[in-house]
Design brief:
Blueprint (H helix, E strand, L loop, with lengths): L1 H17 L2 E8 L10 E4 L5 E3 L5 E5 L8 E4 L6 E3 L8 E5 L3 H10 L4 H16 L8 E3 L6 E4 L5 E5 L4 E5 L4 E13 L4 E12 L7 H12 L3 H9 L3 H4 L1 E4 L7 H4 E5 L6 E5 L8 E6 L6 E5 L4 E3 L10 E5 L23
Length: 340
């Protein structure tokens, strides 16, 4: 009898575990040929898999909550898939960066001084302007190519290979697939689009306690902290004040939600009813400088882990300084036991 019960429990466990595995195939959009060693992952996490020589992959999704699936490969644009299920195999076509590559190679020729200036701008806008950025190293800067506009006001950066960042201050190695980088100097606008995979840096001699303190300091008052607090309707106790030119805004002023029929999970969206492109002031009470959030459309999706679809938000002030060097993986949770 005990053996039968054990067998039933084991079978149920196996079925549940199997149902949390997604599978699929990655192909070239033009040639329809399989893409081997493409990376299939959830952005800003360590959850990743790779395709085999037939373009096939499997990925365990049991610890992931409502995040798009990202597919990246050398020489292709990354793509995000939101409609995936363990019950249905995924078929994804990636687009090559062929024409972009020709343009970059033609325009990549230039003297060393100009390249140095471009790299300086890229590091500042890509890594950010915080203390953490000072201890970040891009290990493959030679793979990055630049194009500048005729008036020198706009800088674009490209890389066919993923950019590798060693964050010595927070203890992470980050593989970043760059889809777009465009910096407009006159408007102080940085349009950065890409996806990242996190690994803990095991080569550092710093202790775990030191990293935890620094990670927590990076988290507090960050965009991730803000969106997690907003999801929980917990802005006040988290120390955030959001206001427009007239008054302090509440959760009801900022959030709309809907229940998904397919997954029976709540989805939340930023929905600000005032005219678009207004700058909302965000203040984190423990003393960090003020930030601004400029919203360009309604129904911007965000999740409980701090993920948000950010192409229609431009950050100002303190949060605008927080680049890749301040990123934390979405499975990060600040430890209450850590003491400064």
């Amino acid at each position: 009898m005990k053996k039968l019960i054990f067998l039933i429990l084991f079978t149920n466990f196996y079925i549940v575990a199997y149902n949390q595995i997604i599978k699929g195939t990655i192909l070239d959009k033009e040639t329809k040929s399989p893409i081997s060693y493409a990376t299939v992952y959830f952005n800003a996490t360590s959850v990743a898999s790779y395709t085999d020589d037939k373009g096939f992959f499997k990925l365990d999704i049991r610890n992931i909550i409502s995040m798009p699936l990202t597919i990246s490969a050398l020489g292709y644009y990354s793509t995000n898939i939101s409609d995936y299920s363990p019950n249905k195999d995924i078929l994804v076509y990636l687009t090559q960066k062929v024409f972009e590559l020709k343009e970059v190679m033609v325009n990549a020729k230039g003297n060393a001084e100009i390249r140095k200036q471009n790299l300086d701008i890229f590091r500042r806008e890509f890594l950010g302007r915080t203390e953490n950025a000072k201890e970040c190293e891009i290990t493959n800067e030679d793979d990055i190519r630049f194009i500048t506009s005729m008036d020198k006001d706009t800088l674009k950066a490209f890389s066919l290979k993923p950019i590798i960042i060693i964050n010595k201050r927070l203890g992470y190695k980050i593989t970043y697939y760059l889809n777009k980088f465009e910096y407009i100097n006159s408007a102080f606008v940085n349009d950065l689009i890409g996806n990242s995979i996190f690994e803990k840096d095991t080569t550092s001699i710093l202790g775990k306690q030191k990293f935890e303190i620094r990670r927590r300091n990076a988290y507090l008052g960050s965009k991730m902290h803000f969106f997690r607090s907003l999801w929980q309707n917990d802005l006040n106790s988290a120390g955030f004040i959001v206001k427009n030119s007239k008054r302090i805004l509440t959760y009801k002023d900022l959030v709309r939600y809907q229940l998904s029929i397919d997954t029976n999970k709540t989805k939340k969206y930023i929905f600000y009813s005032e005219p678009h492109s207004v700058i909302l002031s965000i203040k984190w009470l423990p003393g960090r400088a003020e930030s601004g959030m400029e919203i360009f459309k309604n129904s911007i999706y965000f999740d409980k882990n701090g993920y948000y679809e950010g192409r229609d938000i431009i950050w100002h002030g303190e949060m605008a300084k927080q680049g890749i060097a301040n990123l934390l993986p979405f499975d990060y949770q600040p430890s209450e036991k850590v003491k400064d």
